[in-house]
Amino acid sequence: MLNQAVFHPDLTVRADMLGLLCESRKLATPLSEIEYDLLFKLLRVSASAPSADFRQQQFGALTSLAARLVTMATHADRIVSTGRPPVPSQKVRHRERARREQAIARGKAEGKSEEQVLRELGILSQDEMVAQARLDLEQIKRAVHRWLDLAVRGCLYPGAGFAKVAMGLRWLDILTAFFTPGRPAQAPESAMVPFTVQGLSSPSFSRSQQPQQQPPQPSSDAAVSAEEVVTVLTQVLIDDPFDANRASAFALLTSWPLVPEDDSEAASAAQAWANQLLRRALHLVSSTRAQESESGALIIRWLFRKFVVLQDMRLDISVPPNASDKPNDVAFANGLLARIVECRKAAEHNLLNAAQQYPLHGMLTAAQYVASEIDFASSAVQTHAEEWRVWLKSLAQEAMAICQVVLSVLTSASPEGNIPAS
After folding, report:
1. In this structure, is the dihedral angle defined by the CA atoms of residues 253, 258, 261 and 264, taken in order, positive or negative?
2. Are 266 and 202 in contact (CB under 8 A)?
3. Which pLDDT band holds residue 417 (cuts at 50, 70, 90)?
């Protein structure tokens, strides 16, 4: 019957089934192997569910499941570390002792030994209890890795539909909130997860920078790596045509731990990777296709926020790279403005050629994003307030100048057929 509910065509039945699997009266109650199999079977067949209501119900149930998994893992790890279960309250101890004594008395009347009765009640010896806790902890770890694999490789592949990509991004949102290494989980105890999920940790950019004959293809048996997740999320930013999915991927990338603290080698590798991605974004913003230029502008926004503002890295957006002594964020903004000036001059010289070779839509969108990321209340921006004022004034002047350049076409009686003479 449970297996039939997993494949039921009515999504309401599937939502009820998911609620039964994810929720429990006691958060520390472990799931059986059958429950794990039913759960992932249900997630797999429901990944493309078109109903927004079902996706919302699933998000709530899986959030409860993640909190339960964290609590179960913390409980099992405490048993493994101390060799005994957590001490319950006095009221619970009295109730459990009375229940145990009644069961033993009943069992002896039926001819059972005390050991048999305790085993029927689920009360194990110390060695058996520790062994069971280790098994539960390993099951939870496998379940989290399986869930991550289903979210990344089962939903965020090229050509996936809107519903499947949206579902994978929501699952990743839950996983990062509860299982990111070094970050307290959003569980009742706000505990650290007692195991490390490599796919949710800081990516190793030094590995991705090594020269290879062919790009590595992830094996279906290998665990999902952090480099694979970050690559997939940036690809969603670039290729996905839906704003909702791109906004979700942008939020995940912004909160992702990219560079470990006090690791200069990792910081250098991350900077090289970011410069490589920046070159691809600059190529996209120069595209005449609106979706590609918008995607490039969104990548530039993320790079500016994550690497330039938060990590204080200098990215080479100027050509040639600018070696000025200005702060990294100001230098980045000035480099973007210089590219806009170059495109505007090309438009003044030959508007038809500039429309094909130097389109301005992506550049102006990227400048708008960069301006929106400036925190004018921060001390770093206040220290260089005059430079930011000059940059904003210059950007506004360039926008007005660009308007004057294209005004002759926009005010034409038939702008769709207007071909500028120069």
Report:
1. negative
2. yes
3. low
